[in-house]
Amino acid sequence: MSKAGVFAMALEQLESAAKRLKISDSTLRVLSHPERELTVSCPVVMDDGRIEVFTGHRVQHSNARGPCKGGIRFHQSVTLDEVKALAMWMTWKCAVVNIPYGGGKGGVQVDVTKLSKEEIRRLTRRYTVSIMPIIGPHKDIPAPDVGTNAETMGWIMDTVSMFQGSTVLDIVTGKSIDLGGSLGRREATGRGVMFNTLELLKRLDMQPCRTKVAVQGFGNVGSVSADLLHRQGCRILAVSDVTGAYYHPDGLPIPDMIEYCKTTRHNVLDGFSAPGVSKIDMNDIFGLDVDVFVPAALEKQITIDNVDKIKARAIIEGANGPTSPDAERVLLKKGKYVVPDILANSGGVVVSYFEWVQSIQSFFWDEEEVNKNLQNVIVRSFEAVWKVAQEEKTDLRNAAMMIAVKRVAQAVEERGIFP
Ligand code: GLU
């Protein structure tokens, strides 16, 4: 599906909230532009001696409320337009859950499945050095996203540390536990999706044990969301990844599927089989008879072309930007609920914040404390968004955006425009 105009989509969401909030044109103009965009070329010596050049970006949308924060994506479809949108969404995400960060995002256009581990390591180190002038523990703190993980974060931390001459733990979050990461960070985004789902089900008078779910995407977000919802008693009827969609009318054996993925080269479901499980067309995941649909893959998955297929009453956006604005209008008209990305998948950056705090203090919390604090932040944020949606008679995205944009606009206005 085309990703053209993802930044235009982010702007449309901003303008809609700004209009309701009666934000001044001047402030809206400031918020509509990323503060800084950096594009870098990263030459990498491949294993066969050839030199390949990869294009990377780091965009800082806003540091009005604190240092920029956001992941680094390694994917073949990365563009500057996409990174700009993702950076802007990070600003709103950090603001809606009220953590003291602005928003940023990075990306490298690369198909990591075609590179060896050593090639990815060299690319990561080169990209890190290229963006080093603009990142820093109090300037801009990267984290994992699609195609990157704790190992990648460890390489970033090491690269910066080599230049610094000492170990800089707080330069990046999503590190492994051995390298100063936080317990619970790996599962945090999925855990946040689960908490958000439970909060919505409560308000719709639905019981988890009677709830049927489909999850698009089985990476870090999709697999953990499916697993934790399954543990809450939900039946996960279908999940999909790049290799196809897998369906069981009574519920999939999610823990077995997660174990299976660990045995495949790129952590995929290809070849998974179990009694009663059938492989269905990837696009059929949208039209299943479920109560909750969790898009946890990439942007613009639910569009005007497939929105009519959707039977789920609730969409919990595990991915960033999975629903196009025109498709969302159709869903809302049908009385469906969309828990927006900036709230639904905020668990990752919330625990990134906890990791950063722990790294700065060199004092580490146990997992129970991390998860409890995460739950408090999500439950409180969901409540606030729900309340604004009721009061303003608007949808959950608009409500979440109103809270977030108001906080950022206030920071921009109170600080004033330099000089
Ligand atoms: N990449 C994640 C996101 O989109 C996490 C960002 C972070 O932890 O800084 O929210």
Cα radius of gyration in angstroms: 20 Å
Q: What's the total count of β strands?
A: 12
Largest beta sheet: what is the strand line-up? Answer: 9-8-7-6-10-11-12
Structural class: alpha/beta
The average pLDDT is 97
Note the beta-strand portion.
15-25%
* Bound ligands: glutamic acid
CATH class type of the largest domain:
Alpha Beta
Q: Give the termini distance in whole angstroms.
A: 43 Å
N to C succession of SSEs: HHEEEHEHEHHEHEEHEEEHEHHHH
Shape type: globular
CATH topology of the largest domain: Rossmann fold
Report the CATH architecture of the largest domain: 3-Layer(aba) Sandwich
Going by CATH, the homologous superfamily of the largest domain would be NAD(P)-binding Rossmann-like Domain
**Main sheet attributes: strand count, strand direction, barrel closure:** 7 strands, mixed
Structural domain count: 2
Helical content class? 40-55%
Question: What's the total helix number?
Answer: 13
Outline the low-pLDDT stretches: none
Summarize the structure.
The chain is of the alpha/beta class and 419 residues long. It has helices at 6-21, 25-32, 80-96, 117-131, 150-164, 185-203, 220-231, 254-262, 325-333, 341-344, 347-361, 367-392, 396-415, and strands spanning 36-45, 51-62, 68-75, 103-109, 140-144, 212-216, 235-241, 244-247, 278-280, 292-295, 314-316, 337-339. It has a seven-stranded mixed sheet. A five-stranded mixed sheet has the order 1-2-4-3-5.
What layout of secondary structure does this protein have?
Elements: H1 6-21, H2 25-32, E1 36-45, E2 51-62, E3 68-75, H3 80-96, E4 103-109, H4 117-131, E5 140-144, H5 150-164, H6 185-203, E6 212-216, H7 220-231, E7 235-241, E8 244-247, H8 254-262, E9 278-280, E10 292-295, E11 314-316, H9 325-333, E12 337-339, H10 341-344, H11 347-361, H12 367-392, H13 396-415
Parallel strand pairs: 3-4, 3-5, 6-7, 6-10, 10-11, 11-12
Antiparallel strand pairs: 1-2, 2-4, 7-8, 8-9
Helix pairs in contact: 1-3, 1-13, 2-13, 3-13, 4-5, 6-7, 6-11, 6-12, 11-12, 12-13
Glutamic acid is lined by residues 69-71, 93, 143, 145, 173, 320, 345, 348-349, 352.
